Amino acid sequence: MKIGVDLGGSHIAVGVISKRNTIIAKREKDIVEVQKIEDIKQYIVDNIKLLISQVLKDVGAPSLVISKIGIATPGKIKNNIIYDIYNLGIKEFKLAQILKEYYNVEVNVRNDAKCAALAEKKIGNLQNYDDSVFLCLGTGIGGATFINGRMLEYAKHIGSEYGHMIIKKDGLNCKCGNKGCFEKYASMKSLKNGVIDLLKLDENTSSEKILEILINKVNKNEEKVNNYIDEYIDNLLTGLSNIINIIEPEAICIGGSFVYYEKVLYTKLIEKINSRKYNCNIPEIVLAKLGNDAGMIGALL
Ligand SMILES: [Zn+2]
User: Fold this and answer.
1) Candidate CATH numbers 3.40.50.1010, 3.30.420.40, 3.40.50.620, 3.50.50.60; the one for domain 2-104
2) Which of 53, 157, 216, 249 has the maximum number of C-beta atoms within 10 A of its C-beta?
3) Distance from the CA of 180 to the center of ligand 1, in angstroms?
């Protein structure tokens, strides 16, 4: 029985994954107020063990039947060790080794955007393309590249860091140390913060509320909001155009919370991209099929 673990900046999800890469049982836990947790690594390990015991109970199986564990996580991975999960303040985490010792099974850890990309390639909306790019638009922008049907995997580093491609000279400061990075203009976090600034909303306004504002466009703000969406799409297109010219993908698949904004963002993106010119064919722009479950499925592929 395979166990998929999705470690996010604010939640942990654990699932039992079938041979056909579907989720048979799933349990989740929010990591609330990280700053109040004294030992975040121990907290994560304890909760993963707890969630694993719960999902195994859900499917009526004892722990001995685990054959493999796959972990999707933010940050960089070298030699199965996780480095730099900024949102959780973790610099180094030997999570795979800890779980391997405890369960005595193979445990593999992989960057979450790469996991989601593999899941889309294997069972999602990138199955029919040899050359493609996956972009995860969420807190930041993660990415993966497939050439001739294979994901580019680098000897030492994470690679395909499209989020840190610079799209504005002397632009906004990014945590990577540069200015003007793509993710400062086109991530869902940047979209949300932009709407909050534009309409002078409370900084804790929920994503659901932002979505409602973008869809319904409260009357007096309609023009403002429309202009803001246009600017966001233009920034997104600048990044996509760079990717298209360098990689020449047949398709670009967009995942992350962007998929919830299909009506307001995706439709406009398609309109605008079709008026652009590239040296290669304009790629298909598809939305991710697997949503939030892609990470834990991809961690086992
Ligand atoms: Zn950056």
Assistant:
1) 3.30.420.40
2) 249
3) 7
